[in-house]
Specification:
With 281 residues, the chain is an alpha/beta fold. The protein is built from 11 helices and 7 strands. It has helices at residues 25-38, 54-58, 92-104, 120-136, 141-151, 157-164, 166-169, 178-184, 209-222, 231-251, 258-269; strands at residues 16-19, 44-47, 67-72, 81-86, 108-113, 197-199, 205-207. Helix 4 (120-136) packs antiparallel against helix 10 (231-251) and helix 5 crosses helix 10.
Length: 281
């Protein structure tokens, strides 16, 4: 059912266009301007952006009422969540179509207003910050992963970094971090030479002594002293900030209800369903 093309004019007759280009505002606006020039009246122009300002993207068109976000989670053929993002000018019937479309293609829709990271990425991002802090404070990465795995996630946050790719996670940063040093060493994660972990032929992992040395070096450069923390404190430091961020998302009206945040985390980040999501928990 796929007809590939390099010509924008071939989009002239379609009812819905979903953009999924590189996550840079300038490129997004250029593409939307080109789409706007050829798409028929009433065509829905959707962006797959995961963090950027949808209203600014819509401003590159002459029809912001027809622009919405349809943020598919990666890998899109597997992950169930679809964040439907309503811009300031998105028409009600366009939002409704986005929600209905999600169900037609077997996704679970969650409605979000415009805001950095929308719902799932925003609330889960804080776990990443805390993970990095714990690593630099000398907490063993294997223990961090064990705590999150024991809570019910399929894998811990550091193993997840290796799976996604350290070069992907840090591609927009100019700061010297553990991940930037590992990337410079050619350690991109599972896909090449290991990352935080070393991997055998069966992808069984062992903590890398090289990564531990890099962690110690970066911590020393930043003047970060070691701390002690038991598993209960590690869990609290990793997950309580998610609940706090969820409260902010509700207060700002980004999400309509706390259950939407729970669904977004369960469907988008594999939060263990029997825990009910961060807000329920």
């Amino acid at each position: 059912l796929i007809t590939p093309s390099l010509d924008y004019a071939d989009l002239a007759s379609v009812d819905l266009i979903i953009e999924a280009v590189f996550e840079t505002m300038e490129i997004k606006k250029e593409v939307f301007s080109s789409i706007d020039a050829v798409a028929k009246p009433g065509c829905i122009l959707a962006s797959n952006t995961s963090y950027l300002d949808l209203d600014e993207i819509a401003g590159a068109t002459s029809r912001p009422q027809d622009v919405i976000g349809l943020h598919f989670f990666s890998p899109a053929n597997v992950m169930n969540l679809l964040e439907v993002v309503r811009g300031e000018h998105s028409a009600p019937e366009v939002i409704n179509t986005g929600m209905r479309l999600a169900k037609i293609i077997g996704k679970t829709p969650v409605l979000s207003k415009v805001g950095w990271g929308f719902i799932a990425n925003r609330v889960m991002k804080v776990r990443g910050y805390q993970t990095d802090n714990l690593i630099l404070q000398g907490i063993n990465p294997e223990i961090i992963d064990k705590v999150i795995y024991d809570y019910g996630f399929a894998m811990g946050p550091i193993a997840m970094k290796d799976l996604v790719g350290l070069d992907v996670l840090g591609r927009d940063s100019n700061e010297r971090t553990v991940e930037s040093v590992l990337v410079d060493m050619g350690r991109l994660g599972q896909k090449k030479n290991g990352g935080y972990y070393d991997y055998d032929q069966n992808r069984e992992k062992t903590l890398s002594p090289l990564a531990l040395e890099v962690i110690r070096e970066v911590a020393k450069e930043k003047g970060i002293e070691p701390v002690l923390a038991d598993e209960a404190e590690i869990l609290a430091r990793l997950l309580y900030p998610i609940i706090n961020e969820g409260a902010k998302v509700l207060d700002e009206g980004i999400a309509m209800r706390s259950s939407d945040i729970d669904i977004a985390c369960i469907k988008g980040y594999n939060w263990p369903v029997y825990k009910g999501g961060p807000m329920f928990w």
